[in-house]
Give the backbone structure.
Amino acid sequence: MAFTLKINGTNRSVDVDGDIPLLWVLRDVLGMTGTKFGCGMALCGACTVHIDGAATRSCITSVDSVGKSAITTIEAVGSTAAGAKIQKAWLDREVVQCGYCQSGQIMSASALLASNPHPTDAAIDDAMSGNICRCGTYVRIRDAIKHAARSNGRGD
Ligand code: FES
Ligand code: FES
């Protein structure tokens, strides 16, 4: 079945079964491999994208459920204000170790910062709790989100 998906501001046409997860369309059909497969069961966050700005697990999101919503992936999140701040903070704070989880981490963190410019520790924990990092970069992730939040104009 043909679907037209709005991905990173561009309409992309795909011909796939409606129940295929968005993750597989991104990676296998469109070759957008920045979004990662981890668990396939909404348990790790590696596959996180934004759908209309909300952090969403693409491994359990069927392509026919997306409709005309705007999909943003790690390939383009840096063109959003929050995404650019988060990516800079990730570099400034040297967050990454192996990197596998990090596109999902950045997608969740940028969705948080876009909706909450000055998140509390509790808000950070709540937003990021579904993103697993086997390398244990959690302390640097929290620090980088706070660093990015400070660039929103209020120091601490
Ligand atoms: S691959 Fe989607 S949450 Fe793990
Ligand atoms: S940086 Fe290696 S899994 Fe997170």
Q: What stands out?
A: The mean pLDDT is 97. The first strand starts at residue 2 and ends at 7. The helical segments are 22-29, 81-92, 102-115, 121-128, 138-150. The beta strands are 2-7, 10-15, 48-51, 54-57, 70-72.
